[in-house]
């Protein structure tokens, strides 16, 4: 008598078709069933992806629940995450609590940076409207009643969460502690911080300079010097961006370790992106580095269309100054990107000047 056919006997193509129809939660569960299922899920999730959302709910717990549910509503394997708590939230709630809530949802293995900033950029989970919300509430230079109500709406505060999936890249958080930066051996610790970045890159890609570095830092003496040294030590091809001057949290170990001390809190943290030489990116889905200027984006789009270029713009993340926000022109910072790539995911932070 023939043994009954089980799901383990399904052909890979049929299994691919079944798994591709699953919801994001069921897909995540299927990804953990076995090595073969994980391989098939990897074939389905083969393109880079960003998922981003904002919530302006005045309860931190509800806001976190909303943004996490939204970014995970589509199939994605989080390789990294960035959360920004804007305006009133980081006064009423501490960012450590926000970081803890998000880590509990995404898992402690996902590199996560949570910062507080004067404003956030992203799409509202409830209305679907794209918003730039900053702390300009109370600006006495704005006298028009309509403009003032617009400012007040945008100054309510909120939380932005962006999750990224980058097949072919490895992502790691590398940190420089406040205690080390302010010690007598600060120069040696800064050198070690840079060497840690280069060693991680070399171990994954064979090259000491990573593809990109996203840096966050607090406004401490010596931080700018460290950033300049990082820039000097890396190849010109390494893209370096970031946010300077606002509190952030990235230490997952301190969330579960009651003996962790504040002295070991990071002063600078680098989210390092490295090409994995064992999993090269398909050129058709390679990540394009483009300037966040409207005419450059437009030229890029036109040239790409005319030449039949198949490179994919799958999303973007903006770092900009809240001082550049003109409240009489909605979404002034994000409009250059949205006008050219309206269907691509976009998130961002309104940081310091």
From TrEMBL:
SUPFAM superfamilies: F-box domain. GO terms for biological process: positive regulation of proteasomal ubiquitin-dependent protein catabolic process; protein polyubiquitination. Pfam families: F-box. CDD domains: F-box_SF. InterPro entries: F-box-like_dom_sf, F-box_dom. It comes from the Eukaryota. Residues 8-41 form the F-box domain. PANTHER family: F-BOX ONLY PROTEIN 22 (PTHR14939:SF5). This is F-box domain-containing protein. It comes from Ambrosia artemisiifolia (Common ragweed).
């Amino acid at each position: 008598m023939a043994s009954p056919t089980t799901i383990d006997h399904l052909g890979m193509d049929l299994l691919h078709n079944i798994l591709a129809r699953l919801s994001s939660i069921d897909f995540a569960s299927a990804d953990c069933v076995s090595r073969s299922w994980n391989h098939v899920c990897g074939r389905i999730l083969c393109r880079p992806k960003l998922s981003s959302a904002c919530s302006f709910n005045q309860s931190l717990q509800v806001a976190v629940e909303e943004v996490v549910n939204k970014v995970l509503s589509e199939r994605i394997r989080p390789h990294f995450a960035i959360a920004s708590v804007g305006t009133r939230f980081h006064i009423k709630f501490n960012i450590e609590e926000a970081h803890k809530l998000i880590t509990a949802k995404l898992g402690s293995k996902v590199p996560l940076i949570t910062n507080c900033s004067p404003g956030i950029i992203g799409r509202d989970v409830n209305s679907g409207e794209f918003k730039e919300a900053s702390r300009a509430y109370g600006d006495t230079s704005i006298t028009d009643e309509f403009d003032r109500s617009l400012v007040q709406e945008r100054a309510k505060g909120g939380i932005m969460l962006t999750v990224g999936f980058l097949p072919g890249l490895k992502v790691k958080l590398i940190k420089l502690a406040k205690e080390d930066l302010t010690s007598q051996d600060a120069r040696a610790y800064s050198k070690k911080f840079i060497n840690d970045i280069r060693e991680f890159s070399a171990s994954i890609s064979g090259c000491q300079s990573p593809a990109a570095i996203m840096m966050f830092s607090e406004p401490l003496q010596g931080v700018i010097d460290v950033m300049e040294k990082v820039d000097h030590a890396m190849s010109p091809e390494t893209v370096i961006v970031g946010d300077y001057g606002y509190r952030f949290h990235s230490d997952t170990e301190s969330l579960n370790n009651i003996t962790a001390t504040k002295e070991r809190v990071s002063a600078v943290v680098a989210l390092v992106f490295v090409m994995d030489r064992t999993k090269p990116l398909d050129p058709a889905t390679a990540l394009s580095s483009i300037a966040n200027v409207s005419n450059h984006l437009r030229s890029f789009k036109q040239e790409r269309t005319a030449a039949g270029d198949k490179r994919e713009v799958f999303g973007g993340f903006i770092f900009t100054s809240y001082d550049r926000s003109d409240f009489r022109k909605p979404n002034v910072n994000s409009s250059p990107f949205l006008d050219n790539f309206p269907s691509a995911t976009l998130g961002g932070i309104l940081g310091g000047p």
